Amino acid sequence: MATIYISIGSNINPAENIQYALQDLKQTFGEIACSTHYESKSVGFEGDNFINLVASAATELDILAVAEHLHKIEDRHGRDRSGPKFSSRSLDLDLLLYDGEIFEQGKLKIPRDEILFNAFVLRPLAELAPDLQHPVEAKTYTELWQAFDQKSQQLWPIV
Questions:
Q1: Average pLDDT over residues 143-154
Q2: Fewest C-beta atoms under 10 Å: which of 8, 12, 98, 158?
Q3: Please, what is the angle between helix 14-29 and helix 63-76, to 10°?
Q4: For residue 79, what pLDDT band results from cuts at 50, 70 and 90?
């Protein structure tokens, strides 16, 4: 069994789309653990605020099968891939980590680069897996979050 970490985000009907995504993830992977939900401004474009979190699960699926499954969940929930890379999203599911694997094939890269550059990924990941080490940086996610310029990207927990 591999432990996976998935970034979940939405800024189009986020409460509804994230709830449905979590239900879909539970149907596939069984038990999942979730970080706090965080709200943040859109990054790279002008748009509504995003709601983001990170979920973890155990799976027997390989990396490519997990990525394909996440893609299908996005599609079921109205993900429009015709627009620019940085745009509003009904649902964005990214496989961040697959155990301690380092993997790259086509557009799929594990660990995801966003872990190191986006507060809305790193903070919930550090919350969910504080002592886990980044497979390339060899630092824990807590250490990476503490070193992150937290003023550069504001986010706040949803209570």
A1: 90
A2: 158
A3: 140
A4: low
Burial of 44 (0-12, 13-18, 19+ CB in 10 A): exposed
SS3 content of the chain, % helix, strand, coil (to 5): 30, 25, 40
Q: What is the pTM of this model?
A: 0.92
Amino acid, res. 23 = Q
Where is pLDDT greater, at 42 or 57? Answer: 57
Contact, 86 vs 72, CB < 8 A?
no
Number of domains in the chain: 1
Element counts in the chain: helices (H) and strands (E):
5, 8
Among the residues of 3-159, which ranges form H helices?
A: 14-29, 63-76, 114-117, 119-128, 141-147
Q: Which amino acid is at 156?
A: W
pLDDT band at residue 58, thresholds of 50, 70 and 90?
Answer: very high
Residues linked to residue 8 through DSSP beta bridges, in sequence order: 53, 93
Q: In which domain, by residue range, is 130 found? A: 2-157
The percent of residues above 90 in pLDDT, for the chain, comes to 75
